[in-house]
Structure formats: C-alpha cells, structure tokens
Fold this sequence. Notes:
The complex is a heterodimer. By secondary structure, chain A is mainly alpha-helical. In chain A, 68% of the residues lie in helices and 0% in strands. In chain A, helix 8 packs antiparallel against helix 9. Chain B has 11 helices and no strands. Classes of the chains: A mainly alpha, B mainly alpha.
Amino acid sequence: MATASAQPVMVERLPRSRSLRLPTWEKLTPLLLLSPSVILIAVFVYGFIGATIRTSLVRWNSALPDYTFVGLHNYQRLFQLERFQADLVNTVHFTAIFLAGCIVIGLGTAVLLDQRLRGTLFFQNVYMYPLALSFVVTGTVWRWILNPNSGVNVILDNLHLGFLKSGWLTDTHTALNSLGLAAVWQMSGFCMAMFLAGLRGIPEELREAARVDGANEWQLFWRITFPLLRPITLSAVIILGHISLKIFDLVYVMTFGGPGYATDMPSLYMWIATFGQFLYSRGAAIAVVLLLMVAVLIVPYLVWNLRGETEQ
Amino acid sequence: MSLLAPVAARSRVRFRPSRLALYLVLVVLAIFYLTPVFAIIVTSLKTTAELARSTVWELPKTPALDSYSTAFNALAPSFFNSVFLVVPATILSATLGSLNGYVLSKWRFRGANLLFALLLFGMFIPYQSILIPLVQFLETINLYGGIPGLILVHVVYGIPICTLIFRNYFATVPRELLEAARIDGASVIGIYRHVMLPISIPGFVVVMIWQFTSIWNEFLFAVTIAQTPTQQPITVALQNLAGSLAPEQNIQMAGALMAAVPTLLIYILLGRYFVRGLLAGSLKG
Lengths: 312, 285
C-alpha cells in the first residue's frame, strides 16, 4: 500500500495497455479456461437464486413440493409475522452495535499500534487471533463466559461488583448485546487490520508537514489522518455490515434465537422455517429478503470498485 | 503491504509522557482478547468434579487431561472428516481460481469486467438464498448427506474469492514477461504452465491458507448438508457435543480447543499470509 489517499482497492487495477494479440485459433483458449467456473457460478449462484425466488412465489409449505403460484403472498404473510418483525429489528440493532464496536476498537487499536511502541507486533497478533477461529468455537467459549452461573458473573462477585451482574444471554434485554460482544471480540481485529494497512499507507511526510505547520497530534489525527482513512472506513462498514446481516453460526451456537425471539435473525429463521418446519416457501421468501438487504450494500460497493478500475 | 513486518524502520516517538497510559490500554485490551483462552485453560484442565462455581476462574491444583481424552474420543472422527473435506476442496478451488485469475488479468476480452463483477457477487451472497435448491440438487445427484457433497459446495462457492486473490496477484506480473514467452512461441496454456504457475507460489499460499481456514470454520453448509452422523465436520460435531453427548463444560472447552488448533497453528506460523487473504476481500493485497 503506497497510495497517498489510502484508497481501498478491492480489485487490483490492471494496466491500461491492451492485452496481447492472439491468433484467431487461440482466441478461444482463455474462454475455455474460464468456462468451468463460469458455468458453475451461473448455475450455483444465479440459477439457484432464481430457483429460490420461484420457491418464494409458490405454496410449498410442507415436506412435499407444491408449485401452485401464489404471487407475493408469502412475503405479505412474512412481514405480518411478529417473529420476522422482531428479526428485522434485531438485525438492525445487532448491526449497529457490531459496527460501532468493531470500528471504535479497530480504529483505536490501529492508531495505538501505529505509535511504533515496543511490542506492537505481539499486541497486534493477540488482537487478531480470534479471526482464525470459527464462530462455533467463539460461541462455545463465550457461551461459558456469559453463562450467568459461571463465567463473568463470578468475577464480578469476587470483585464485589455484584451490581454489574447480568443474565447476559439468558435475559431478553441483554441477550442481543451479549451476542454483539462475542461478535465484536471475533471481528474487531479485521477492522484493525484494515485501518492499520491504511495508516501505514499514509506517507510520513504528510504528517511531518502538518507538524511543521504547528498542528498538534490531536489536530493531525482529525484533520489529516482520519479524512484519509474515510474510504477504508466505508469499506469496513460495508464488509462488516454484510457479515452482520448474514450472521448465523454465532446465533445458532450461543442462543438459537432465544430467549423468545430476543436474538432471532432472518438468517436463522430462514434455516429453522425451511429445515425445521418444512415451510419452504416461507424460508425462500426470508432468503430473498436477506439477499436484497445484502445486495443493497454490496452491489454499489462492487460497482465503486470496478469503476475505479476503468477510470484508470 | 507490510502489515505484520517489523516496524522499526521509522523511529519516531509520539505521546512520550503518556506512553505508560498507552501500554495500559494495550494490556487491558489484550486481557479482553485473551480471556477466552484463559477460560479454556482453567476449565478444560479440570475434572468434572472440580467444576465448582466459586473456583471457575482458578487454575486446577493438578491439571487433569481427562476432558481432553473424552473430547478427543468424541471428536476425532469428525476432525478427520474436516481434514478430508478441507484438503481436496482447498486444492480444487485454488486451481480453478488461479486459472480464472490468469485469464481475467492477462487475456482481456469484451465483457470481462461484467463477468468478473458477476463472479465476485457470488462471494457476498447470503448462502441461505441458494440453500433450498442446493439441497434439492445434491439429493438429485446423490451427494446430499456427507463430505463429498460439501467438497463440491466449497469448491464452487470458493471460486469468487480464489479468482479475486489470483487476479490481483497476477495483475502485478509485468506484461513483458508474457510478450517474451509469446515470441518464444508459447501458447496461452503454455504461458500459464511455464511462466505464471512457477511464480504463483505466494498466491497459492495466500489462497490455500484462506480457503483452509474458511472451510475448516464453516458451519451453515456443514450443518445443513452433512446429515449423516458419521460424516459431520468438526464444527457441527463440536456444536452437537454441547447438546447431547457431554454437556460438561470442561469437555466442551477441550473440544473447542481441538476444533481451533489447525487454524490457530496456521495463524501462528503463517500469519502474514493469513492477513493478506483476510484483506483480499476489501483491500489490495
């Protein structure tokens, strides 16, 4: 990363020069090399999305397929369901705390580690190891830490901080935030890695010049560093936001949506409706809503990335 | 990018008076991140009889490995299921990704950008949106229920990220190298085999580490598709351990550690490449 603007580029820019000329008989080879993947993606991504949309428009709500067309009926029913309404509220709530937690901790740790203190590498590795773990492992361990009868409540008791004790995952008011705590623990290192890469891409001369002009470190951060990190912040919001919308494993392992619907999410309800209750059309409708939510975030992001390339 | 490289090159010291405060913050955060490790240690090294509420956070007087042998007996088959899933799926998706990355970075054709965007979209979709037809399809071709079906699924849905990483990697290979090979009479496939493949080892390392970690840790496909009890990957088996076989916390924690060891080892030994894969989805590598 040597770009002064710390511009996040998901897609490496290709040189403007045209690709090599090929004799006619060899022009097909590149396409042939691509074709297995293109066919697989066409079928497994776009074909299957089409099939899911179709399922969401029929009356297949038992173990046996029923392809009677019912239009948008499944969607209408879905949005009237108390459970799905709770899911949507939970997703927004969870995404808000997850994003806030990851960005505050991620940016904070990145700035701290960019101070070139001794031992930076050690702390960096400690902050990022959760990324190597699965949500199932994270969920298993945090389920124990947040178990009201063992875990963190015992520490609070021992510190005479009993008033801070909580039901954590078992209390409808705290369950979603507790889930968010485990998710932030797992993913904040990702945000840190992004910001750190951005910070190290900002040329020291820029900050030095501002210092010469009399800026203090605080002004330096808010006037120079932070604005340069804005594209990275946007990338982080989009990537983490779409992870948050799709969160499944952690909820499955830690609460399975409970207590009540306190931590239920569209991703989990889709799975339960489909494979637990055999409400295939309802499951498909939830899946389509989820896909649309993710697409709203991701499609502009992809366009932004790829357009940057053609402008080059 | 030198994210994990030593940072001694620039010697500047800021915030000198408050350095101690900085370290304090770093240490407090490190305690937060390491708490689960400590929880695993204090719990998994106890026998079930020692799991008393008042001493849950204390180390056992004599470490016991009982919970590890129980967890190992319960999880070893699924551990190897995961190995047999991860290894072929990683190799196959990396191979496809390197071919795609080569073509998309070096042999541009009309519509290549659109095709690439459509390919990339596949790595962001919530897999719930393809799960119902996927299960039907796997049932039709008799691959529903176990590891072979999961291999197919992970190869297919691994194509976008592998293609992206290889395309970014190959984009940095100078055009002159290919031109020289053309003049020597190499074909499109010949250039791939004799020019690109030999220099793509670092790309393969990044992609394979990324795929290994992602597939090892994956849960949604695993819990949906691996219905045969003897064919479960480790993530599913770990989750089931909590539900049925052994609800004791010490065994769950030992199991969690067992499920985490392969990817943790990769992180510890090859962290630099792991981070590159991690950032590939959002930053240039």
